[in-house]
Amino acid sequence: ALKITDQCINCDVCEPVCPNTAISPGAEIYEIAPSQCTECVGHFDVPQCVEVCPVECIILDPQHPESPEQLLAKYAVLTGAE
Ligand code: SF4
Ligand code: SF4
């Protein structure tokens, strides 16, 4: 999963582009729910939130390292695809 750092300026452009509705406004800054972020695997070639973030504050979450296979498996669970 990816995570949003405290550089976030709460601009809200990332929330609508997430195919997994993993992004939401948190108490201080926007947040990514790790259980719902596939790093866009299954949907797009590159993470859409990273593409649109104007301050480049979205990084790999060191607390949630995942292999491409794990991300694809998460995508399958989230979408109901097999
Ligand atoms: Fe959503 Fe993709 Fe960003 Fe993860 S990487 S939060 S799935 S837009
Ligand atoms: Fe924060 Fe970047 Fe999302 Fe804007 S696009 S809300 S700065 S994480």
Count of discrete alpha- or pi-helical segments spanning 4 or more residues: 2
Q: Kindly state the percentage of residues in helix.
A: 10-25%
State the total count of DSSP E strands.
4
Low-confidence segments, given as residue ranges, are none
Euclidean distance between termini CA atoms? 20 Å
Order of helices and strands: EEEHEH
Shape: globular
Task: Give me the side-by-side strand order of the main sheet.
Answer: 1-4
Give the integer mean of the pLDDT values: 97
Give the CATH architecture.
2-Layer Sandwich
Alpha-beta content class? alpha+beta
- CATH class type: Alpha Beta
Whole-angstrom Rg: 12 Å
Tally of individual domains: 1
Biggest sheet record: 2 strands, antiparallel
Beta-strand content estimate: 5-15%
The CATH topology annotation reads as Alpha-Beta Plaits
GO molecular function: 4 iron, 4 sulfur cluster binding; metal ion binding
Cofactor: [4Fe-4S] cluster
Domain 4Fe-4S ferredoxin-type: 1-28
Pfam families: Fer4_10 (PF13237)
Explain what the structure shows:
The protein is α+β, with helices and mostly antiparallel strands and 82 residues long. The protein has a single domain (2-79), classed as Alpha-Beta Plaits. The chain has helices spanning 48-52, 68-79, and strands at residues 2-4, 23-25, 30-32, 58-60. The strands form two sheets. A two-stranded antiparallel ribbon has the order 1-4. The protein has a two-stranded antiparallel ribbon with strand order 2-3. It is globular. The mean pLDDT is 97. The structure holds iron/sulfur cluster (2 copies). The site of one iron/sulfur cluster has 14 residues, from loops. One iron/sulfur cluster is lined by residues 4, 8-14, 30, 52-53, 55, 57-58.
